[in-house]
Amino acid sequence: MRGEVGKIVGEATPYEFSFQIYNPLEVKKGDFVKVWNDADGWFAAYVSEIKAVSKSDERDGSETYLAKAVVLGKRSGKSIVLPKTPFVPGDRVFKAEEDFVAECLGFYEDGVYLGYLGDTKIKVTLNPNTLVQKHVCILAKTGSGKSYTAAVIIEELLEKDVALLIIDPHGEYESLKYPNDDESLEEFGLKPKGYADKVKMFVPPKSPLADKADGILRLDGINLSAEEIIEMGEIRKSSAQAAIYQLIREMRGRTYTIQDLIDEAEQLSGNLKAEIIGALTKIEETDLFSENPTPIEVLMQKGKAVILNLAGIDPIHQDIIVAKVCREIFEMRKRGEIDPGMIVVDEAHNFVPEKGIDKSVSSSVLRTIASEGRKFALGLMIISQRPARIDKNVLSQCNTQIILRVTNPNDINSIKRGVEGITSEMVEEIKRLPVGQALVITPDLERPVIVRVRTRKSKHKEAEEIIKVEKKKARKEEKKRDTPKKEVKEKKGGFFKKLFGGD
Fold first, then answer.
1. How far apart are CA 112 and CA 126, in angstroms?
2. For the segment 173-189, what is each residue's pLDDT rounded down to a tens digit?
3. 298, 296, 321: which is closest to 310 by C-alpha?
């Protein structure tokens, strides 16, 4: 049979085996092979390791190449099965056809197209229902492509008319509106596409981007909690915090605004009165709260992505915005008053930090959505460059994990604790992943796979800005180099002309 690349050697089980490679140029780590099992037929396997072993102690001794393969199984109806008997040493190993591998792994038909499987042209398509309802996390060190990968998934979910709310602390997602011009789209069988008709950007009042926004986000300022007021007013003294709690207790059973609290605070005395009124006035001057708040149903619409662009906004205000918006969305979703959908939270470590590392008002509601959101068809996409700083319970609720390159030891240990079923072999893989490749773990696949994330159909703002900066630097450097040369030439010409005359 064509495609034979080796034979099984040593011990073999139904789950893994080693094989001798005939030609080391034909097999590499990450390849897929197939082996015949006399009892159950053909099975696919994944080459997880390759090593060279010397045949002799002599310096010029030849070596043999051994590969370790992990059995993926084969498709039987809707499930994947493993052989009932072990493979046999001496059995031949063949390169697996792409169609056979795709069938064995069971990629979801017409699913979320994430990219290609390893070095193959096999499309990795994930079940959109699993992604949305059972939550997904995207983890990576800075510059490894986490926001890019998130945007790929957002594009796919928009194509499937999923309602999306994107919490965007750095203004990275507005570029979804515009088509990409990257030639590598062709490699993935795609064409440029912008989503201007599906993407709207909202910003808080006083945002530096207000003139570019599609809408201004204003929140309901009725009955703010003591925790929200203390955080937004940056009230640090325990006596002042106690006064806020007392003011709100006195309002129990009544509807109150910030102005009502200011009026009540007039009854206080001394420095405490000035501090409380100053803090409450500071909150009122943000213009964030209004008697006519933005309707929450505007933020979650079928087939639309609403970006809450929080770039340039005080992190404390960001926290309050995320807390209030997500809480109202969750409550309305429980009552069936808004469309099912997904909340995308970038820089999630700032909004749902690990207990004991940091505090945030938004933590409570995001933890609740992570644990209960699937009952009400409200999903979460958690994106972070600092896995060690994210609440581990939230990470563990994400059934699909997309992990790009991570090297920080604390973050690696956090992934080990927060991601179920991850092995030491996978951890080593994560440390070495090239930019744009991800380890994908999902209940819809029998084993984790390495995916070459596809090119975005829409523009990637970060890459565009870097290119502009680099070009600007290059022009500046070129100008610096050219100016002195020109001056020297002119001086030399003038000197020689004066000394010798003529040209």
1. 5
2. 999 999 999 999 999 99
3. 321
Q: Summarize pLDDT for 62-112 with one digit per residue, the tens.
A: 788 999 999 988 888 777 888 999 999 999 999 999 889 988 888 888 899
What does DSSP say about strands 112-117 and 79-81: parallel, antiparallel, or unpaired?
unpaired
**C-alpha–C-alpha distance, residues 310 and 325, integer Å:** 13
Instruction: Retrieve residue 135's tokens.
Output: 């939550």
Cα angle for residues 262, 268, 274 (degrees, 5° grid): 65
- The pTM of the full predicted model, rounded to 2 decimals, is 0.84
What is the total residue count of the chain? 503
Q: Write the CB contacts of 360 (distance below 8 Å, at least 6 apart in sequence).
A: 319, 323, 350, 351, 352, 353
Instruction: Please give the Cα distance from 44 to 73 (Å, whole number).
Output: 6
Residue 46 host element (H or E): strand 41-54
| Helix (H), strand (E) at residue 264 | helix 258-265
3-state secondary structure of 388: helix
Could you count the other beta carbons within 10 Å of the beta carbon of residue 103? 14
162 vs 378: CA distance, rounded Å: 11
